[in-house]
Queue: 3 jobs
Job 1
Amino acid sequence: MTELIKVGMADWKIASSGDVLKTTGLGSCVGLTLYDGAAKIAGMAHIMLPSSEIAREEQFNRAKYADTALPDMLQAMIAAGASRRRLVAKLAGGAQMFAFAGQDTMRIGPRNVETCKMMLASLDIPLIAEDTGANYGRTIELDSTTGVLTIRSIQYGTKEL
Amino acid sequence: MSLWNEFKDEFKLDVLKEVGNIGAGHAATALSRILNHPVDMSVPTVSLVPFEEIADRVGGAEQVVIAVFLRVEGDAPGNMFFIIREDSAKRLLRNLLSIDTEEGAYSDMELSALNEIGNILAGSYLSSLADFTKLAMTPTVPSLAIDMAGAILSYGLLQFGQMGDAALLIETKFLEDRDTVEGQFFLIPDPESFEKIFRALGVPGS
């Protein structure tokens, strides 16, 4: 029985044995997914902000920031039986929903994507596909049986990576 | 964290409710002038909403909404959204422009009209708020998006994202015929703006 596991905003989850991970309404947030095709273990993070260095809270939610969410999720996947060398990554989201010139916080989408890519490179995890940027929202699903990432948007319908 | 404690103070929440009341009241008047028929509005709600639940206020993360977003600049910066459902938007356009509109598609003229409506309403909301608080608050040029509610609203939460996992939302609904929701206003002041608003209004202890 395939289960649909919902990943909330500033949250990550892992899945195996045919379960599907889903997160809805990615705007400037980034959906970062990792997959081990041999162990059939999948992970999905819904990342809101690039770096925990900007956190102004003492005990922050590590799933919110790219630089803390990725290592945590990676560790959980390895603990569940994934091999670090087999992991591949896919990215979706990081849109710029509204255009405002010269406002740094409004460029958060592209910055989220850049930081995820930097983190992946530093962990030696290959990024094999992405659907990022532009100005529209995305809902994504990752199938732990196949590693296929399905991306749905209002304007462009459904596509698979 | 002191900011979160402040939001437990009933009196301060009432002050913020009044802020929403005054702003949205003026905006509702502006809208009823545009439409040439009365527009009611709900009593504002002020609540600390977990990020996860914010999109539920407009029908869920994947609900398609039309949103006019603008950034509030000046003494008490923040984010503002005017959100309308597609059927309400089409009705608004028919009443305003007297043109036959098509479901699910928008001409440049319609988009521009919706953007302008958002602009007028947000402008009247903010100018009444600025008068009331004597704080300088000016809207940026508005930007319109038609997309998933989750994708749109998360944009207004980034300033709060660095502080925690919830945002303080001042919400007002516009009603037509008492129960049909015409549109919603969300004002999300930046975390630093609350102190300024409270101080400007002479709230004790601020």
Job 2
Amino acid sequence: MNSEPTQLIMNLPISTDAVENISRLKDIFRQCADIAYERIAAGPEMACSAWIVYCESLADQQSASDILSVLQKMEMRRRGNGMVISSQTIREWFEFQGVIDRSYFVHDSIGSVVRMVLRGHVVFFMEHWHHAISFDGLKLETRGVEEPSAERAAIGPREGTVENLSMNIGMLRLRLQTPDFKIVKIPQAGRRTGKEIVYGYLDGVVSDRVLQQFEQRIHQVRNFDVIDTTMLERVIQDAARTPFPQCRYTERTDAAALALLEGKIIVMSQGSGVVLICPSRFVEFLQSIEDYYHRPSFTFFIRLLRLAAFLIALFLPSIYVALTTFHTELIPTVLLLAITNTREGIPFPAVVEVLIMEFFFELLREAGIRLPQAVGSAVSIVGALIIGQAAIDSGIASPIMIVVVALTGIASFSIPQYNFAISLRLLKVPFILLAASLGGFGIMIGIILLLMHLCSLRSLGEPYFDPIGPFHPRRFAGLFKASDKRDPGQDAA
Amino acid sequence: MKARVCLMLWIGAALILTGCWSQMELTERAFVLALAIDKGDKEKLEVTAQIYKPMSQFGPPSGQSQELSFINVTLQGMSVSNIIRNTKTVSGRHSQFSHIQILLVSDEVARERLGDILDFFFRDPEIRLGTPVVITRGKARNYLVGRSMIESTLGSQLFKQINFSAYLAGRSVNTNLRDLAFGLKSESEGAMLPVITNDRQYRQDVVQGIALARRDRLIGYIRPVKAPYLLLLAGKYKYGVLEIPCEGEESLTETVEVLHSAARMTPAIKGRSASARIEVEIDASIGELACTTIRDMADETKFADRIGQYFKEQMESVLDTLRKRKADVLGIGHKLYLRHPAQWKNMKPDWPELYARMPIDLDVRVYIRNSKMMNSTPYSRIGDN
């Protein structure tokens, strides 16, 4: 409503009249009950007045009182007429007295003061002085470091990121103790959210072209209001109209460090534990950090298993439909007879049956995620009973259908990246429809279109389907093993 | 723009004009598991299709096991394809032939017309060429009536019986549609088929013996006891037990188990006549000994020579039967054609007669590979031997 006057005031320089400054601030922060203004009288005969402004909900009370103690000391030291306190004097005080061990900022516009207050800084105004000083008094409630619930691993560190950005950076810094690990800050993303965003990369490992592309895009983030790191994918991604994600996410510091070693760029933001990893290729969504902690033979097995899971999650329902309605000759006789037994008496065509059961399953899955844990288990009981037993007994679905749907669901759960599993859930439906209308031929058409799409996708300019799309034999063979991370410089020596 | 429209049309046409258009739900299909072909009234054929009857889970829970899991549809007509098309009018479902387990042809029909009734099966895309064909003694339909012994349907029961009879017992041959076509259409124009008979005494169906076919009809049989020797000659004997009667004592027999066998046939042309040499090698282990004592290697060689001689006699009698029937099921003619195509042209019209009187040189070698226990009487008292 009053955005224009507010904007005008924001651009004003700090006046030498402290009372005017305060009234301007009060104007901007009208109806903001958590902004505290404290007047301090200082100097001989309390003639010199000063103001402290801070946000009670963000800044530590202790920080505000630190200022007071500084001033008191200043007063004690100052003999005689201390009516004029120059900025120089104060700066000296702050610098050399070592009262406050935090960095401080000098401001000369109202706007920057407002921003600092909203970031938890304590701002100090002095009469007859056209500057203001602020220092960081932010106190954040942060939870302890825990294992991320979405990325559990049987072995490996249990360290997950928290909502505090500097803590996260610290945990990463400990894992990569090299000056090559660069952290770049974008202090203010979005006019209203004003989020602090950082991106990091390993100098010398990351490709310059990718980094350049990334930096071009990430700087657009100033115009976006960013609530969470995941929203940044929209700024970074190459193609918006694709079900496939082009960024990976992790809450594990070891996974983030490994991504850096692989030449990826990571993005983090204040207030979110999510680490965004880009550019990401198709095959990386089927890999997990744990692969690097196991013996190579097991890694080989587990990656093959995930490949199978990917194929099952995408194709199993459509293959079932194609086989039972078009290509019954492909089913072994004994199995076919068993299937005909279970299908006998089901009123729907196979495709309708599949769609109904997939719909039930998606509903259950969505309900299970949203509900609190106590109720969630009730949903799974009801779901298991309704979908499993009752649907069969009432003749809506055949038992083999339940097996197909359940296997598809379990396969999609076993894909390590959640956002990738979602894209498979979406893609499964067009495949079912293709199978129902054209049989195995339809599935082939779908696969061809899918491969064409995957080969045309790019992530930060890099081919998305990399070792398969532009075929690269050596890296393709390497897909099934977790390669050692060797420093190329050390190798040559 | 124009190119893009063209491309879209082209892709659309590719989608619409090609593809699988056989969409049909499982509940609309009837899966034929076995077919029996008999002679019907007058010149007609009688075809019986055994169709799987799905057991609905919503049916009455009790007495389900008493119900048969298949139905038989029998129709008569002049042509196989027309009769099969009409099975729908009886069963109410579309017959699907891709899961046929066995094709039964009664000897009565096979003696008159084996070639032309099979023509449909060679052409139809649904029917697999791997489907076994078997000749039935008596009416073929009778073998599809009643209950199966172990398997859920009679079709798969018979299928397994043929398989094991040919593979493990060496009592019969496993011939599918493809083998039959290759045999009958080869230059030799001969094929072997398994035979199924009903054992009246114990009321059970037995697959044993081999039927001989030439050109388009059945011409004779090889008895079950002689069947292994025909298989050995043809190199199709896998595993089985062979009996050798004791010299002097007719009531006693000894047995060997065949572990591996190989046959090599080399035909030759001499002027206007042909000859052939067949070498058969048998690796065997001793099964039962009744009248032979093997103490050392010399005894073993003697035993091997004796049974080799016996096998050779048996094979020669089989070869005599084949030549008498003019059934070149070993494919000697075809091999001659492959080796001497030019001479074969002149020879072919007279081949049956040439074959009937051609000399066949037979060489049988038996190797005892595993003697198990060499005592003539295991668990014997000291001094008994």
Job 3
Amino acid sequence: MLTVSRPAGEPPGARLGAVHGWPVPAVVAIVGASSALAALVVVSVTGAWGLPPAAQVPVDATVGVTFSVMAAVVLTSPGLRPGSRALAWVLMTAGACSGLAALATAISLAAGSASAAAGAAVQLQGTIWVPGFLPLLTLVPLLYPDGLLPGRPWRWAAVAAVVGTVTLTAAMSLFPETFEGRVAIAKPVSHLLAAQVLAAVSAVLLVPAVVAALAAPIVRFRRADGLPRRQVVVLMGAAAVLAAVTAAQGVLPRPTDVIAQSVAAGLVAVAIGVAVTRHGLYDLDTAVARSVVAASLGVCLAGAYLTLFAVLQALPRHQSALSAALAAGLTGAVMQPLAKRLTAGVDRMYYGDRRDPFAVTSELAARLTSSGLDVARVPQVVCDTVVEALRLTAASIRLAGDGARSVASAGSVPSGRAPSTFDLRHRGDVVGELDVWPRAGERVLDQRDAVVLRGVADQVSPAVAALQLHQQLQRSREALVSAREGERLQLRRDLHDGLGATLAGLRLQVETARDLADDPGIRRLLDAAGGGVAHAITEVRTITEGLRPAGIDELGLGRALSALADRVRTPGLQVRVDVDSDLHTDPAVEVALHRIAAEALANVVRHASATTVRLAVRDERHLTLDVVDDGVGMSAAGSAAAGSGLGLDSMRRRAEEVGGRLEISSSPHGTHVRAVLPHSVGDLR
Amino acid sequence: MTTFTDIQTTPDVSAPTRPSRKRRAVLTVVGLLNCALPTVFTLNITRMLLTGVHTDHRYHQATGQGEILFALWLVPIVLMLRAGWRGRRPNAALGLQHLSLIGAGIVTAAVAPGGGAPFLVAVISGTGILLWAALPTRPRLRMPAQTDPLLAPVALLCSAVLIPYAAGQLALQNAATTGFHAANPHFFDQAWIAVAIAVMALLAALLPAARGLASWVAGSLVVLGSAGLVLGESVGFHLAFLVLGALTVCVSWAARRRLVAN
């Protein structure tokens, strides 16, 4: 009878499940574990180990002890999620049932006659192994690691597993069976037909449930990332060991096979407990790495010894003892260097080039000095190198003065984890910061990683400082260009609307005066004056057209581009124009776009030998100019043309002056020039 | 910022130099010399396997005397010739595979000289030397060693199984002073490929540039093990070959995934 003891002030229902003051998990764990231990004692005391059914007792006992104890540990862990409690109760049930099964088997083995107690023990051992074993193949994989199913469709698998387990338990309890212990004892209660029917029903439910349950960890592994994935890997590793040991049953000699299977079964419980309770599974990688080194070294030494022994035995006049001694000696001699190399290899597997800072800095230097590397790409190269070489989770670089905005990043930044920050200092000033996040499973950045990253930060600081200067220069240039084009626009308007108009009026007056004058001398003088004014008008027009491309102010940018296209159109060159009707942009950007289009079209006419060219301008988030031709491509054109750079330099400069970019792709089938420009100077960033 | 794609306005310094006609002619002749023997053998043995000639020697036809040997022998030669034809440096793994086969042949022929094995190995070595001399650039053999902690134990386990197998086959060959195998050194062939596979496994474990050899080791062991089990050879050895082949597949897949992920 349960007695609920509630301390004063504790709300009702807060401590459900206590037996005489002991919490229920502890009670059940004690029942399971003590039954298992009692089973071992009974079999040992009665000397029943030689009987065939005794082989099952150690395995059941191990499951009984380890699963019960581990489940109790999990249930009493602080901060455990409700789902994990459900998983722990499944483990507890399996452990308790296995412990009782072990005890019932032991009693059946030890029975000297077919008494009522022995019959009850036989009945129990033939029944209770089902709920002690099947949940490990069904509910545990379904609920691991957080006690939640992988998805809604898996509910049927869970229901089928529970119903199937209950049905199979009933079937096995009714299945007629004779236990061959010291004496043969038949089950007192049995019904073959009922057992067969129930077994058939349970098979229909359990087979798909088991398949689904075994697939559940694989589904979780593929979906999950970070800690849940690591938890699944822990279970899969332990399960793989158990599967391998079970497969080796029949090959391994007795009692090695029983001991191995017991240890493997216990390992699964420990693995589940560790994975569920160790928050973040920190330091797991260190433990696994050491295990990999130890296992690898052991196998390498065994393999090396056997290989050397085989080679020595193959020699003529060999002696087995001498061969063995020589093989052992040579293997021992390589043990230490081999252990060093394997440790270095495992370290590299987990931590990258942490042990070899020179390798990291060399790799970084090689990438930074690769031909054609733009200074703007330096931060990205640094982040990529740091993440790849050191296997870190993520890295990013922020420039001083840009606040929290990063100019480059690599990897996936884990949420809720603060980075370790390294200042990028150049000539005493902090020009930027390198943020790195430690590997999954590490609480903080390791000191060795910090040493390497400090070196990397010092190495790249000058390049980042150059980038910062470059960006400042770019901003200044954009401001200058913007101001320049604004001034030019104003000047053009002043000249065109002011001086130009005045000169035009003056010319009219002079011509009118000349027409009215009778004196030939005066007519000649007025003619000359009129010519001078006409020349001045022409000069003003030339100056205004030189200030900004013709047509932009009179026709608008769109129609000015169409006019450009009309100028290059010939019978042998079709020009298609596709310009958005309403283009809104700064004066500087208008001029840049017009001049780039003019240069691109001129290149098509002069070098491309094309039959079709398309000029398109899109006004979306940015202004995009595309000039696409079907000519011979730039390689062929470059070798044939007398010019030096096909105006590429000029186009690039015009795009960059206003904060845009130029992209050119060329093949033997044509060239595509694309300029992406901001609506306002510098807005592309 | 300017982005250029597909433009070759300046010569690409890393592009291979096309070999001269003379070099290509030499490569053609050397290629014929190197490929003639394994090609003829491959066609002949495959014909025998498919048409059921000497059915009691099917195991050897499928493995050491036949398919495995020719794959290990012919494929690196063809790939090195192709690289040389294009003016490229052949992969270091190809070079090491070729040298492993020749080295294993020399060692096993020295231990079991019956049946014309030394002559065969001498022909292969001689033509192999000509091949390396004819290549415009040779595979790089000097490279830093970096032990793979997962491949190394697998490689040593492979050698622990393959070397005793090879020793047994060489003993059988030396004992076959009369009969079919005195003139047809199939046991020597089995030992030859076993030693070659063991050497390749160790090289794959030690040298990063040779990690690709693990796939050859895996494939060869799986074929050797499967053929032995299906055709009634010793279960112990061939089951071990099959298991080791599967293990090598898993480990080399894991190593490739790590490479991609990093």
